[in-house]
Design brief:
Blueprint (H helix, E strand, L loop, with lengths): L1 H16 L8 H12 L2 H8 L8 H13 L3 H26 L2 H12 L2 H6 L6 H45 L14 H16 L5 H14 L3 H35 L3 H5 L4 H13 L7 H25 L1 H17 L15 H22 L11 H32 L8 H7 L6 E3 L5 H6 L4 E3 L12 E5 L3 H4 L3 H7 L3 E8 L2 E7 L14
Parallel strand pairs: 1-2, 1-3
Antiparallel strand pairs: 3-5, 4-5
Length: about 525
């Protein structure tokens, strides 16, 4: 088992290194800017009040960058590491449910999931919060297991102790030993609370997972653990509250400036809700024609989630933890939109275990009905066992194989990569003025120190250059009609150059003010 474990995690690590140096996109460039321009204290005091996330991820990245720098690979490597550690958490949880073989299948389903691979290469907080909540879930489930085992020991302690002793003696030497095999309730509760607090200081959306797990503990009558956790989290929230109030105020100001900002955050719509299972199963890759994409992605999603649903019948706790955060997030999005699939990335580990559980449940149903025994009439005893084993592994292998295939499509085809600011920055001239929405200029400035002006001021500015360059990135969010403003000045678009998901335009003007008409020169 140890060799298989190393093989799965080694392969998962290797594929995450492919295309790790692709261009940063806007949010990643913001991460780079923050850790370059601000001190640890300034991140909390100056930057975080203007941001929409807690400061923990940026503080961690600031410390990381002092050792490894702010290059593309250095910025993304923590997310790679956190993703692999999340895979280990999946292995631990699933192993507790059945055995190490089952745990490794579940871990592989997570590690090769195309959406997990995509966000394991992003210099944002989503990989970190997924890691934190996955281990919080592990310690939470261990608390429940410890309580249930304690109850069993009260019934017949000697028998269960003997069984546990024999089980430990029979464990193969190549088994994967967990360093998290904690049997002390207070230690488990300490780690459970610690990881929940860290998650809430990393990503506010963690609250839906936290609330769901606390409700699960309540249904299991773990009132003391819930009470302690609520008190601890309340103290943590009280420390966060001043920052959160400031961020909410600034968010309201931004929504007035950017009239379509709510669409970016993700309103509570059926489309956004349906995108969650599609992206969870098919990843970020897309293609034309869209009709064909939706057919293929829909069929694959239906296949994957048929096992999620089957697993939910068998593992009701996991089903509860998987579904309730989505429901809470959907309801909350009617008041403050955040219904985008990547904000629920922390549910992928739970989904992976549910898929594995669903496959096992499906096979058990088939065996009970006798469908797997028809080959007994044609094969010898040794051949029967081999055939059965192949059939049992086939579904898992298909799921993991297609997950890996979708991940490799993303990794090897730049069409599915992030916005290509790197290439565009190298083409733009240094001696020309570039206009764009300044809050969106971080990726351009990360690659080249080009002269950039605020596009929204172009109506009142004098334009002295004959040629100007426009990067209309995020213009639809702000609802700014830059084309109309430039046409009123007598300018016209001469060229449009497109890169992956970004482009710039070259406009030709004369010596113009806001009160002048176009004067053709040369």
């Amino acid at each position: 088992m140890r060799k298989k474990f190393m093989l799965v995690f080694g392969l998962a690590f290797i594929i995450r290194l492919i295309s790790l140096n692709q261009s940063l996109w806007l949010d990643e460039a913001i991460t780079a800017k923050v850790i370059k321009q601000f001190t640890l204290f300034q991140i909390s005091s100056l930057f975080s009040p203007t941001d929409f996330h807690p400061p923990l991820y940026y503080l961690f990245m600031k410390l990381w960058s002092t050792l490894f720098g702010v290059g593309e690979i250095a910025l993304r490597l923590p997310s790679v590491i956190f993703s692999l550690l999340t895979g280990h958490a999946v292995f631990l949880i699933a192993t507790r449910i059945r055995n190490q073989k089952f745990g490794l299948w579940a871990a592989a389903l997570y590690l090769f999931n195309p959406l997990a691979v995509y966000y394991s290469q992003e210099a944002r907080m989503y990989s970190l919060v997924t890691f934190l909540l996955a281990f919080a879930a592990y310690f939470g489930f261990e608390l429940l297991r410890l309580h249930e085992n304690t109850h069993k020991h009260r019934l017949n302690g000697h028998i269960y102790s003997l069984i546990d002793f024999i089980r430990q003696k029979l464990i193969r030497r190549d088994s994967v030993v967990s360093i998290f095999d904690i049997k002390e309730k207070r230690i488990l509760l300490l780690f459970f609370n610690l990881f929940l607090i860290l998650a809430l200081w990393t990503f506010y959306g963690s609250i839906f997972f936290v609330a769901s797990f606390l409700l699960l503990l309540l249904t299991k009558k773990r009132y003391k653990e819930v009470g302690i956790t609520v008190v601890v989290l309340s103290v943590s929230f009280a420390l966060q509250l001043p920052l959160l109030i400031t961020q909410l105020h600034n968010a309201q100001v931004l929504q007035k400036e950017a009239q379509n900002w709510a669409l970016v955050l993700g309103p509570a719509t059926i489309k956004n809700l349906l995108l969650i299972p599609i992206k969870f199963a098919f990843g970020r890759i897309s293609f034309y024609p869209k009709f064909l994409y939706y057919v293929i992605a829909g069929l694959w999603t239906s296949f994957v989630f048929s096992y999620v649903i089957l697993g939910a019948f068998k593992a009701k706790r996991l089903a509860f933890i998987f579904s309730l955060p989505l429901l809470l997030g959907f309801i909350f999005s009617f008041f403050s939109p955040l219904m985008q699939y990547f904000r629920f990335l922390y549910l992928l580990p739970i989904m992976s275990i549910l898929i594995a559980e669903g496959v096992e449940h499906y096979l058990s149903i088939k065996k009970k009905k006798g469908f797997l025994h028809f080959l007994h009439f044609f094969k010898k005893n040794q051949e029967k066992k081999l055939i059965h084993q192949i059939r049992e592994n086939a579904i898992m292998e298909i799921l993991i194989g297609i997950f890996l295939f979708l991940s490799l499509i993303y990794l090897f085809f730049p069409l599915h990569h992030r916005e290509d600011w790197k290439s565009m920055a190298q083409v733009l001239p240094l001696n020309k003025t570039i206009y764009m929405i300044l809050p969106s200029s971080d990726p351009l400035l990360y690659y080249r120190g080009l002269p950039v002006k605020e596009l929204r001021n172009i109506e009142t500015e004098w334009i002295f250059e004959k040629e100007i360059y426009i990067i209309p990135y995020t213009v639809p969010i702000y609802g700014f009609d830059y084309e109309g403003k430039l046409h009123n000045k007598g300018c016209y678009r001469k060229e449009k150059r497109v890169f992956h998901q970004v482009f710039f335009e070259r406009w030709v003007c004369g010596f113009i003010s806001s009160s002048c008409t176009h004067i053709q020169q040369g």
